[in-house]
């Protein structure tokens, strides 16, 4: 992207996106307006889309397959370059003190937030499966979850625009002769939380993964999230919490088992 320098710091040349606009899909919200003018928001989205989105695999929201998606090749160099362009687009100097290392830190953070693509549920469970003669519920509650949401632009692979903050996941299952090491449930949750997500899909994927690893008689996953896209911008409602659940087997079909799960979940709940 071409830049020119003025006394007020680096500014973007108006024609800098003209040759790259064709790279975005027709339906993408990242294309320039019909007037040919681009806001800082347009520019930020455009450079992010070019440098990063091609590295993220298309999500499979309707697939029942829980095998890990193809790991994206997230180039730290490309992400850092995109971050520098974004800093320029908002009118700042990426070379000034305090910002010089920001692009690299941003790239490292994005790689960390999306490391779940490179993890496998069978590897993280690490064969920590033990035989047991019990069909009593096992519940691990209040698992802290932080994730980057892909907002409402999944099909266009646009930049992430939401963060799940202060999220709690509760996982329960009815054993079928086997139990999983307790620490492995949060690890499985992390595999899917560290991807570009929507809350509904994240909840479903964790339940499916536990089914695949353990083959229990039933699984329940409940996720409570505060979405920063509803707090920091948009409707700006700070007290909203979104709840989703995924139930399978006995915990879906047997009302007594389901009631037992919710009773145990609420018992001793932190006030």
UniProtKB/TrEMBL annotation:
HAMAP family: FolE. Residues 1-19 have a biased composition (Polar residues). Its EC number is 3.5.4.16. This is GTP cyclohydrolase 1. It comes from Pyricularia oryzae. Pathway: Cofactor biosynthesis; 7,8-dihydroneopterin triphosphate biosynthesis; 7,8-dihydroneopterin triphosphate from GTP: step 1/1. Pfam families: GTP_cyclohydroI. One of its GO terms (biological process) is tetrahydrofolate biosynthetic process. One of its GO terms (molecular function) is GTP cyclohydrolase I activity. GTP cyclohydrolase 1 is the first enzyme in the biosynthetic pathway leading to folic acid. InterPro entries: GTP-CH-I_C/QueF (IPR043133), GTP-CH-I_N (IPR043134), GTP_CycHdrlase_I (IPR001474), GTP_CycHdrlase_I_CS (IPR018234), GTP_CycHdrlase_I_dom (IPR020602). SUPFAM superfamilies: Tetrahydrobiopterin biosynthesis enzymes-like (SSF55620). GO terms for cellular component: cytoplasm. NCBIfam families: folE (TIGR00063), PRK09347.1-2 (NF006825), PRK09347.1-3 (NF006826). Belongs to the GTP cyclohydrolase I family. The keyword Endoplasmic reticulum does not apply. Residues 1-37 are annotated as: Disordered. Keywords: Folate biosynthesis, GTP-binding, Hydrolase, Nucleotide-binding. Residues 80-265 form the GTP cyclohydrolase I domain.
């Amino acid at each position: 992207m071409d830049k020119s320098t003025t006394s007020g710091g680096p500014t973007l040349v108006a024609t800098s996106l003209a040759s790259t606009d064709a790279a975005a899909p027709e339906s993408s919200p990242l294309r320039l307006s019909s007037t040919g003018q681009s806001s800082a928001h347009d520019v930020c989205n455009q450079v992010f889309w070019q440098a990063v989105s091609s590295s993220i695999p298309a999500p499979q929201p309707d697939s029942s397959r829980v095998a890990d998606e193809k790991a994206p090749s997230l180039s730290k160099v490309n992400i850092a370059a995109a971050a520098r362009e974004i800093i320029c687009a908002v009118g700042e100097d990426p070379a000034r003190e305090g910002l010089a290392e920001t692009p690299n830190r941003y790239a490292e953070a994005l790689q960390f937030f999306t490391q779940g693509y490179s993890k496998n549920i069978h590897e993280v469970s690490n064969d920590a499966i033990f035989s047991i003669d019990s069909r009593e519920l096992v519940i691990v509650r209040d698992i802290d979850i932080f994730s980057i949401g892909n907002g409402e632009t999944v099909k266009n692979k646009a930049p992430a625009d939401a963060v799940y903050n202060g999220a709690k996941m509760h996982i329960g299952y009815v054993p079928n002769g086997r139990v999983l090491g307790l620490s492995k449930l949060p690890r499985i949750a992390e595999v899917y939380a560290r991807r570009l997500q929507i809350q509904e899909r994240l909840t479903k994927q964790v339940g499916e993964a536990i089914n695949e690893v353990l083959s229990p008689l039933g699984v329940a996953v409940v996720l409570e999230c505060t979405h920063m896209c509803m707090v920091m911008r948009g409707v700006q409602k700070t007290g909203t919490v979104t709840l989703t659940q995924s139930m399978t087997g006995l915990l879906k079909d047997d009302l007594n088992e389901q009631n037992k799960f919710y009773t145990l979940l609420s018992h001793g709940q932190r006030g």
